[in-house]
Amino acid sequence: MPDGAKILVVDDDDAIRKFLRISLTASGYAVIEARTGEQALAKAATESPALVVLDLGLPDLDGREVVVRLRDWFTGPVLILSVRADEIEKVAALDAGADDYVVKPFGIQELLARLRVLLRSRPSVSASPVLDLGALRIDLAARTVAVDGRPSVAFTRKEFDLLALLARNAGKVVTQRQILSEIWGAAHLADTQYLRVYIGQLRAKLGDDPAAARFIRTEPGVGYRLLTPENEAPGGS
Amino acid sequence: MVDDDTRPDPDALLAEVGRADRGRLKVFLGAAPGVGKTYEMLRAAHEAKADGVDVVIGICETHGRRDTEALLVGIEAVPRTLVSYRDRKFAEMDLDAILARAPKLVLVDELAHSNVEGVRHAKRWQDVMEILAAGIDVYTTLNVQHIESLNDVVERISGIKVRETLPDAILERADEIEVVDVTPEVLQKRLREGKVYVPEQAAHAMTRFFSRGNLTALREMALRVAAERVDRDMLDFMRGHAVASAWPARERLLVCLWSGVDAERLVRTGKRMADRSHAPWIVLALGAAGRADPAMEKALMLAEQLGAETEAVGVAGSSVSAILDYARRRNVSRIVVGTAHRLSRLFRRPLHERLIAGGDAFEITVLGGDERTAATPGQRPREEFSPKPYLLGVLYVALAMPFGFFVDTALPLANLSLVFMAPVLASAAQGHVPAATVTSVLAFFAYNYFFTEPRLTLSVIRHYDVLTLAFFLVFSLVVGILGARLNAQVAAMRQSERHTRALYEFTRKALSATSDYDMAWTVVSQVRSSVAVETVLLTPDASGRLAVLAGSPPIDEIDPASEAAAEWAWRQGQRAGWSTNTLPSSQWMFLPLVAREHSQGVLGVRREEGGESVSAADRRLLDTLVDQAALILERARMIAETAEAQRYSQTEKLRTALLSSVSHDLRTPLVSIIGAASTLEALGPYIGETDRRELLHTVSTEAVRLNRFIQNLLDMTRLGYGALAVRRDWLDLADVVAAARERLKGRLDRTELAVRIAPEAAVIEADPTLLEQVLVNLLDNAARYCPGGEAVEVEATLVDGRVVIAVSDPGPGIPPEKRERVFDLFWRAESGDRQGAGTGLGLAIVRGFVEAMGGRVSVGERAGGGARFEISLPQPRAPDLSHEPAHA
Prior knowledge:
The structure holds two protein chains of two kinds. By secondary structure, chain A is of the alpha/beta class. Chain A has helices at about 15-25, 35-45, 65-70, 85-95, 110-125, 155-170, 175-185, 190-205, and strands at about 5-10, 30-35, 50-55, 80, 100-105, 130-135, 135-140, 145, 150, 175, 215-220, 225. Chain A is globular and about 50 Å long. The longest helix of chain B is centred in the last third of the chain and has 68 residues, at about 615-685.
């Protein structure tokens, strides 16, 4: 399981950094630490980590700015740590290019599961036209979907585009803004009603129940996430 | 319109509601003295008392009549108050005692009575209004001849001028009128039997008054007043209940006054006509604006008392078109005018005739002149005579004469009469018509006497000179009068322009004022510069008492008598003080500032030292300015309210920020605890022994940190609700420091603590729990800035009866501008959660606790760098050891 990937942990609280260092090291990752945003940017440049775990409440810079400046050259995944009150800043950071988030306080398994998704999914997605996500199998070339091994009903063009977008980012959160701009275009960023209707149609066709989601989970106030077998691991929130 | 008439008239409904919390007024109305009004009133009072009503006698004149006096027995009487006036004492009704006694019903005899000077109100009916306003019912008596609008009729019938009059509006406010009626025969019999009180000096007149014819007429009037009253109650009911069918299209009456008519009589007649047709009425005074006409002013005040709407307009052009325009604009149906005196009719077609010719849409009533009143000297409106314009006219003519001689000898000028036109024009330029007329006649004679052949006689021999003289007289008269008129009109326009500009200036300046005081100052200075009176503005302060906000010239307070007038004007929403009927002894006249039914305060004015009293035109300007001032102050009040709301939302924002930062403080330790615990749980086998111990250590220290936050929060709550009970006790300071250190175990492990306590500060008096918490928080704060284990110093000394405890750390210190704010609860909140957790509440608690113990806290710079927190607690006494039993 551990692949020795180098992870940069950015948090101003000593105790939090300490347990993250211990747990991530024990899980087989190499850990480097930073206390402030500026330090984080410097370390990310010199140490070239595979992934950045970034706390939003930093003393010097706000999370969105750190992400924007990281994204100038850093291509690896960025995971946001935030408290529930940070909704707006969290979404801003995600829109700025962060890949996922974990709400504090969190159990270590949840964090590890997210890290695995982020570190694994990146290279494998675009290689094959067929996405196998456990019970869900999506053929991007043939534009067909199978649920539990049975072909599902036909999807409209937009529905399939939406599903494909979520599937390419399987296991990660995709913000409303990202979905709207990619599927409907930049002029429709405020038209969240499209999103609600289409997600509802997708769920109906996949036989999914929003209250106990198997495939598409709503991240309130943020966006949607297509679940992978890892996401369903115990300890997930 | 049809819709409007089927809906209940809101004014009528409001009047009904307005009556609800006022006292009820019942008037016992009689035709003449001696009919038994007082007797009847007392009988009614006994009946009320029998019904359990709390009745008192405010004032009651029995004039020695025995059967009336007998009725006084059994009803509590409020003692009268003695008022000294010109070395004599007068017993007047004690208004304040009645208000203080607050009965359900009070008897007040003789409603039309005039109070002696020195009493709050000039008239007794004003006392009654105040009693009613206090919610007390009033029974009162009144003779019909005292009713203002009937005053002149009574005078004509009986030949007696009644001085004490009652405004009709007061009678209209009566809830009930009872006519006390006896036949003239009975009344005359009573008079013969000596049962009617007659003042000695008026005995002769009274006998004439009590003639049968007079009594019949007066009796009829009393009955008619009551009957009209019944009629109106009926109409009120119908309007209040939207009975539309019986309500005809409304009539509106316009009474026009101008100089030269008998204005007062016109007003009284207008009132009677308006009453008969139940129509609202307007009194319009036309005049050359800018020139005060005291008679007109008096008539307007009378009209206001009689319930008319009044307006005064300065007319520059045709009076007829001004009247007709006004009438059309106000939807008037009938115009009432008087006739001007005969002399003016010689020159022009009388105004009423021109009015009839032009106003075919209106019903026009012309009142004939009344010889008797017209002949009475002093009644006719007369301008004050000033010789100045006439003397100037004479001077101009005198100056023209040498010039005439010079021209006559030096130049062959065809007609010298033109030289004499010059003084006529010069005189006309003053705007004084009579003077211009006199000057032209004078010029005519001068020219005739000195320059026409034969000279130095008034006779003329040359025919063409006769013609020249005739034309000269006509031209000079026309030019003189036209010129003077034109000038007067220009003056009128200037005056009205001055008023408009004053109003504009006032509004503009007041609206640009930025603060309350600024605005108040603008109001007083603008009123002063526009009307030339000393001005003061009083507004209610926080405790609801009127206080001077601004004055021009600046003034700090007003004398107590004026204060009472101001208070009264403010509470009652009516003007009071100088030149009014209420508390006229005050130097100031106070005008209430009422906007949107809110009384903002009062504006006081008094004549400037050595200045003139306020002219009629300025009085109207003053009214307008006061209205504007009220609106402006109302606006200021609303701006202040908005600012208050903004402050509130600011506080609300800070509160939210505080909440989120508190939640951050609470959550941060939890993140570490949950993270460390879940790491141990999930990855236990993969973690080495050292790391495992470190994680366990994280769990326990973070749990302690969490506990400390919770304690802080609880302390904050205690401070916030003022539920902090301070328990003073003698304690050893070293013990307290040790206890604080113990509580911070783990936190202070790496920090060296240097404690120095002076011997005299070793045992002090304080609350042990609070002081311990203060030290814990200060040490915790110090430790936060000494992560490298630098030494934290605690010193205690006794200075001037106060124990001073200082906690210093060699950390980065606090910049001077932030020193006071670190104790601020919101200081922490404003910086959000960017800072490390738990940096805020602690110091706010330190200040709260220290202040609860009567001490002070401050922060300064430590010698050698860093922060030095100092708390000082009062030590009123040294520990008393004298009773200690001596040890052997």
